[in-house]
């Protein structure tokens, strides 16, 4: 019955009555006008509170157990299990850096720029083998085949026609595994010189002389000129003066 009263704190009689106290009968009881006024104010405040709470209910705010309003997205752990699953820093002072300096993720070999030292062999290791201490590791260079031989040596000889340093050619040929293709070095050099100038042929003669005994043997040189004589008909197609030269 108190809520159904008017929202106005005073009725018309109370406004015109001055300071004289008036009483109203409710359910057979006479109640002072001041008590009725306080009841109206309280009822009006309750209605405003209900309207405000219903309007803010869609905003996602929630009230904790302590009566504090929390913003959306903040979860307050209410059990010890919830606190354990919370991955945020408990002190609230985390710097946001990656774990272990960025070396603790999946598929990570270590921190950037890290250099690993040579691992020492442990004699007590059950997989230790005495023979592995006496192993000598060498770089194996595969021998050149005929196709790779011409592709590799042609630019070396052409550069020699420019600088004329036989020692440089000798050092480069020693780094290659010529294998059974050693005798082909003079063959290729003479074939390229026939297509060039007279100065190139003179330089080729000096190159073969300097390589003999270091890179190629005398037997290899003899075998190379035998092959040149057999291939003379083909050389004439590119160099018509090949037989005289």
Structure write-up:
There is one protein chain. With 245 residues, the protein is mainly alpha-helical. The protein has a domain at 146-238: Serine Threonine Protein Phosphatase 5, Tetratricopeptide repeat (Alpha Horseshoe), CATH 1.25.40.180. Helices cover 44% and strands 5% of the residues. The protein has nine helices and four strands; from the N terminus they run αββαββααααααα. The protein has helices at residues 12-16, 33-56, 80-85, 146-163, 166-174, 184-194, 198-211, 218-230, 232-238, and strands spanning 23-26, 29-32, 62-63, 69-70. It has a two-stranded antiparallel ribbon with strand order 1-2. It has a two-stranded antiparallel sheet with strand order 3-4. Strand 3 (62-63) and strand 4 form a beta hairpin. Helix 4 packs antiparallel against helix 5 (166-174), helix 6 (184-194) packs antiparallel against helix 7 and helix 6 (184-194) packs across helix 8 (218-230). The chain is elongated. The N and C termini lie far apart (134 Å). The relative contact order is 0.05. Mean pLDDT is 75; it is low at 8-21 and 61-67.
